[in-house]
From TrEMBL:
Organism of derivation: Kitasatospora phosalacinea
UniProt region (Disordered), positions on chain: 131-168
SUPFAM superfamilies: NTF2-like
Gene3D superfamilies linked: 3.10.450.50
Pfam families in alphabetical order: DUF1348 (PF07080)
TM helices/strands, residue ranges: none
Protein name, UniProt field: Uncharacterized protein
Amino acid sequence: MSEDRPPRPPFTRATALAKVRAAEDAWNTRDPERVALAYTPDTRWRNRDTFLTGRAEVTAFLAAKWQREHEYALRKELWAFGDDRIAVRFQYEWHDADGQWWRSYGNELWEFDAHGLMRRREASIDDVRIDAAQRRIHGPRPADEPADAPGGEPTGEPGGPAEELPLH
C-alpha cells in the first residue's frame, strides 16, 4: 500500500505554498514521528554537516534536535518551485539549556516523489546569537497569517511572489 501526502507534484504556486505551510505546521509541533511521515521511507537528508538516510534516522535526529532546541518556533517561506521540487528559506528561534536565545537562518531544497512524500532534503543553516528581547517568532504562525508572508526578517531585497524556476 503506497502512502499519499497531498499536495502531489507537479506543483503550482498554490500547491507549493500549501506544501510549505504544511511542513512549517508539522515542524512546529516538534513531534519527530509526525514530521518523519512526510518523508519517503528511504529519504535522503543533508542537514548542515549531518547526512541521514531513512525515516528512522530522521526521527532520531529530530528527537535529539528538539531536546537541545527549547521553545523552537519556525517560519518557512516559499522561494521557488518546479515540477517536483520546492526551495524554501526559513528562520527559527530557540534557546539552549543555558537560556541563550538563537535565531537560525537557512535554505532548504526539497524533492518529492509522485505521492507527495519528500525523498530528498538539503538544508544549509547558520545560527545567530540573539537576546530574548530580539525575538520575532513566538510560537506557530497564526492561522490568519499568509503562508507566503516572510518570517519577519528585513532582507533588503525586493519582495515578490515565488516564481516557477527550473530546479532540475
